Amino acid sequence: MLRKKVNSLENNKDSILSVHTDGDIEYYSITALEELGEIEHYILPKTFYDKDEEDADFFRLCTLFDFNFNKIVTIRNFNYESIEINSYKDIEVKAFTETNSNVCAITTNVRKAPLIIRNKGILNVIIYDPGKKVVSLAAVNMQQTLDKALKALVLELNIKYNSSPLDLKVVMISFGQSKVYVDDNTSNVFKSNFHNINHCISQTDEGLEQVDICKINIATLLEVGVKYENIIDIKNKELPEILANVETIYTIINIK
After folding, report:
1. Of 68, 150, 171, 209, whose CB neighbour count within 10 A is largest?
2. How far apart are the two ends of the chain, measured CA to CA in Å?
């Protein structure tokens, strides 16, 4: 199926997303990843004709992207309450918090099994090793950080695939508000776990502390050796209106 790139969306003179069209359907790719060639990373908003039940929306996406429905990995119903992963390949699933299972991380070679994520109010951090053709995903609801998950993923990539942190590319897209209120105990834990995260913490006019979880995640990646220039951090305000204002987003990842 022919997919046509229409144009790029501009933000601060840098191209953030490219918009594609296939008939009446528009979807977006990360412009900074296009240099990798073999990696496809698309984002679609959930529309009114998508049906959650009986996998109707996943069938539609498989048709759009020429995927075999029986060979995809899906992360679905990923919200504040539940995670459901369906896989036709071996896939590792890890929970990094005992009290809240809404933090998960997976590592998979998606060359033969495209990954489709349906999420609501979730921050996805996707780590690529372009040379090894391996993808890792850490995902969390917008009330938590991913410091433990990200450290574990980078270490796992190094051990299992001999991936150097210096070679990794990271895509992080935050839908909605990335700042959360924290109490003094939580704030002190963050401060003790990092060398310097003062730039991640701010105070409101009422004296309450807020932590920017996206900045915390970036600080984590830098501490484990990922290059800052290889981290693509896309904020809600940088997204086109159709993505910024919709609750449920699909992320499609495929390695040719």
Report:
1. 150
2. 15
Residue 191 lies in a domain: no
pLDDT (tens place) for every residue of the chain, 256 residues total: 334 444 444 433 346 788 888 777 888 888 877 777 677 888 888 776 666 566 788 888 888 888 888 888 887 766 555 566 676 655 555 544 434 445 566 666 656 678 888 877 666 788 888 887 777 777 665 556 667 778 878 888 888 889 999 999 888 876 556 677 778 887 777 777 777 777 888 888 887 788 887 788 888 889 889 999 999 888 777 777 777 777 778 888 887 7
How many structural domains are present in the chain? 1
Backbone angles phi, psi at 239, to 5 degrees: -90, 150
Measuring CA to CA, which residue among 68, 75, 166 is closest to residue 118? Answer: 75
What's 233's domain CATH number?
3.60.140.10
